[in-house]
Amino acid sequence: MSETIWIILIGSLVASSCALVGCFLILRRLAMLSDAISHAVLPGIVLAFLISGGVGLLPALLGAGVFGVLTVVATDLMQRYGRVQSDAAIGVVFTVFFALGVVLISALSGQVHLDAEHVLFGEILYAPFNTWTVLGMDIPRAAIIMGGVTVLNIAFVILCYKQLKVCAFDPQLAASIGISVVFWHYALMAAVSMTTVASFESVGVVIVVAMLIVPANTAYMLTDRLGWMLILAVIAGILSTVGGYALAALLDGSIAGAMATVSGVLFALAALFSPTHGVLIRRRRALRLEPSDPNIGQAGP
Amino acid sequence: MSDLPPWLAFFTFTSVNVVFVTAGCMLIGITGGTLGSFAYLRKRSLLGDALAHAALPGVCVAFLLTGTKDPLVILLGSVAACWLGAITIDAITAYTRVKEDSALGMVLSVYFGVGVLLLTYIQQSGNPNQAGLDAFLFGEAASMVQRDVWTLAGAGGLACFCVVLAYKELKLLAFDPDFAHSLGFNRRLLEVFLSTLIVIAVAIGLQAVGVVLMAAMLVTPAAAARYWTDRLGVMLLLAAGIGAASGFMGAYASYLAPRMPTGPWMVLAASALFFLSMVLSPRAGIVPRLYRHLRQRRRTAEENVLRTLYLLDERRHRPDGHFSLGEVIEHRPMPLGTLRRVLLRLERNGRVRASSVGLFTLTESGRARGERLTRLHRLWELYLTSKLDIAPDHVHDDAEEIEHILTPELEERLLAALNHPETDPHARVIPGLRSRSEEP
After folding, report:
1. Which CATH architecture does the domain made up of A2-293 adopt?
2. Ordered DSSP codes for A1-57
3. Chain B neighbors of A256, CB-CB under 8 A
């Protein structure tokens, strides 16, 4: 029973922290960069295991964080100095890092016990059993880490709300009123890297991508206001977690996979039935407009 | 034969397995490079990445329905799922306000999530056949057999053949989709056609090199080829060649170190070729560009010194003044070391002569050069003030830049446009005009 609560709590923390930075990510049209970061951290994790000589958490987070930032920097440098278009730069950089990671894993297969699959899929099911003792209580490690990341992300979004908002919607205006777009780009990317890296252990990297992008887009379908978008994205993320847990229990399958599945379903529902931007309402509006609008009715031959 | 060292034994191709693996990897590289070029030009390089991830649920469903791991069944499953993924991406971007990058990311992560869910479901269900189904995430090129190679050759050949057949239409779509539409081509249909070809390229490579690395084979060879040419036909051939070369190198690397998977080595080889292209390609590479930039800067510095000496001469109304470094710097501030180096180069080129006491004077050719630069500078100032109505005190900086760039042809045009003027906006004589008009 308490494990169920811990799993849902950890999942919700992952979903919330991802949703908060994800909103800015999709507004800046950088959704695919999260996918790149999440794959490119692999060699960082392997190297950290190799250097620290064990399955330590802190080295892994550090190694992954370094490679996450490295991905962003390398992509930027290639665009600026190599004149590669942005999508190709992202594609080249993260696949190199990932290939490097897989090669390292194979080369060191005798020395480190690192399952690439585990890094990719993650298994939140085991998260409650790895605990730290705080104030005499056994609290799952993942819950503490994700709690910290969520608090950091909330603080980041609230304290830097104005800057993030203006950079997301109007970079030119931002530059003209003295807000450094480049600085806030890197600040956002650092937050994305940190969130990705902290989440990979409990839910796996590909699902982090789902949690970063999908709930934010669900919220984007429902509202035009950034504040509401952030709140709705967090709600959509938490709903995906709860629904995902139920679905996984039903099928006896991966919770992380089920979370992504449910988040996709939620997006589909929002995209179809949103009262403001939904596909159906737009179609109905278009149909209703046609006969009643005299200009449209009489324009044709 | 068997006593050859491994790095040579590879090239005898006596092992049938080696031949299949090498051929298979090269085929994947060729198909990926060719179709990746179109994805690159459509600025949709990451489509391959999204589709490769989207194949996972197809693999699982195909296995659930048939209970076998037959390559053809799995291939059909992944093609179907990829295709559905491509349609979903198009539908999301066409019918909702969601942007394309988000659509790609959502299809990638949600389809993959569904795939992971199904995969774990299959694993729990205890079907003994399922072992190795997840190999497709990382790929197992080393296990390729004859049948796989024929499948690859068939599907890849078909895709490349389609490119040849529809070359003109795809070219139009890649460079100017709106123009294609206005010519009466069905743009949506063409997009779906291209997506389908990319789906085929992704699906055939998945089992050999895995999800992420297949994405690389679509991006990297095309991006590398782009550095060498501006022509689509050449780019396609180059990308296919780079893809084939990386396939070959990947197979070679995993032959030498049998524990190593082939796919990652293929990607590393392709990436190495990409970085070489990015740094060295004469057309757009970083080093040649840097070299051109530095050469231009050096020339500009030389010309600035020549012009300064000329102006100092002009101010004294004497053609052969001797000037110290201090006088030059006073007129045009620059670091002393730079000025020394520039003067040394100019002396070697015979534009400047040094006299015994550390003074410098223009030679005949240096003087001609300085005169020409001054002429261009003043002509441009005059052009800006008389034709573009710019205030005379605002034209100097612009002229300072353009005097290094103007060609003799442009000079002629300027002279004609300004009716062969004699003085610039500051009432200084434009040098070297009278003598020239008297020459013929």
Report:
1. Orthogonal Bundle (1.10)
2. -HHHHHHHHHHHHHHHHHHHHHHHHHHTT-HHHHHHHHHHTHHHHHHHHHHHTS--H
3. 113, 116
